[in-house]
Amino acid sequence: MAISLHNSTNIPRVGFASPFLGSNSASKVSISVSLNSFSNLSFKSVETSRQQLYRISAMSKAESSSSNQVKVDISLSPRVNSVKPSKTVAITDHATALAQAGVPVIRLAAGEPDFDTPAIIAEAGINAIREGYTRYSPNAGTLELLTAICHKLKEENGISYTPDQIVVSNGAKQSILQAVLAVCSPGDEVIIPAPYWVSYPEMARLADATPVILPTLISDNFLLDPELLESNITEKSRLLILCSPSNPTGSVYPKKLLEKIAEIVAKNPRLLVLSDEIYEHIIYAPATHTSFASLPGMWERTLTVNGFSKAFAMTGWRLGYIAGPKNFIAACNKIQSQSTSGASSIAQKAGVAALGLGYAGGEVVSSMVKAFRERRDFLVKSFGELEGVKISEPQGAFYLFIDFSSYYGLEVEGFGKIENSESLCRYLLDEGQVALVPGDAFGDDSCIRISYAASLTTLQASFERIKKALISLRPAVSV
């Protein structure tokens, strides 16, 4: 749960011996946190640090043992070594650890709604336990949930599927990875517009494919230029990943732009589209959502991913799904059968209840969206009044991707030089104790992502902290 602080004008500044937090002046209070995992975090997860310490300890023991003893080969797969850890997960873990150590950090890094799972959904899960619905479910999902998903996709998205064209998984993230593994061969290219969700390029690397990053502009609302797409398609292009509404920008692709992209896709027989629609219900009028598979000729080309985490505030239930042509879905099903097997039987009962709330989640979801919109409006107005800030107003999701690059290049007394999005995030955590995610994690180093999946009171306090941290700084260039 996000932290709400009322006395935002008098914030104690706390120093840590960690490169992530930067240096501190002598006047600041210094706290020593006795957790091994805090050593040299610098946006690395606590778990990663634990693993590093374990490997160092293992090597030391091996070296001190008998010279006749064979040392263990602790090398890792090149595929795994090519993958970067998730910065959003790392920063969330880091901020949580700081809060547990007594530091009043406001955490705006994770993309997790602050609302409780709606009562009717939670009750369905509770009843599943009470009624003994606690055994393995079919690998691809229960027929009850698959049928409900088919109905939802037909009524809300205008795309028709049968139950054998859908696989339910342990979250949309798993569905995306399985799709990439199912369709990509070594050497294939995965086209990813930037800014992107942090996991897309790493999933491509796990499939031995090459991520091809296509930049977008804040002046274009971070939307992909069709001409840029067409000029970067090669015979190796296998998958185009689209996310609308977008994480991290909140941008929504208009139907006309998607139609232009579809025309380009149609010219290239090998090119498929993965449409990540996890935020489809968190959208602000007049923006509307269009499923890529609903466009002419795109059903055969599209793998549609969705889930229950965001719109229904069911992050911990771990429930998502993928829909598409049967041969691709069968491949995803096969991968799942040899990894996690089916999703939780309890979560699937809850998923059926969620889809039973009505069109687009009914009043339960619309009330959450109303709150997200109020928060967005507050942040857009507030940050828009700060000097040297560029904003593209989000049309969906619950993220604000703000260009703070005018502050780069400044020397800050007691901290050092603000060189990029990561050092600015370190400065804001050190000076204002607000945890944000640097834009370089999403492929755009000029920006910082703020999640407004927190109460309005918390967001008001966080803005005052950020404003206070920046108030003494003058933009390096005028904008």
Automatic annotation (TrEMBL):
Lineage summary: Eukaryota, Viridiplantae, Streptophyta, Embryophyta, Tracheophyta
Name of the protein: Bifunctional aspartate aminotransferase and glutamate/aspartate-prephenate aminotransferase
PANTHER family: ASPARTATE AMINOTRANSFERASE
Family as reported in the entry's similarity comment: Belongs to the class-I pyridoxal-phosphate-dependent aminotransferase family.
Single Gene Ontology MF annotation: L-aspartate:2-oxoglutarate aminotransferase activity
Pathway of action: Amino-acid biosynthesis; L-phenylalanine biosynthesis; L-arogenate from prephenate (L-Glu route): step 1/1; Amino-acid biosynthesis; L-phenylalanine biosynthesis; L-arogenate from prephenate (L-Asp route): step 1/1
Cofactor(s), names only, from the UniProt record: pyridoxal 5'-phosphate
Pfam families: Aminotran_1_2
GO BP terms: aromatic amino acid family biosynthetic process, prephenate pathway
Keywords assigned: Aminotransferase, Pyridoxal phosphate, Transferase
Domain called Aminotransferase class I/classII large: residue spans: 104-458
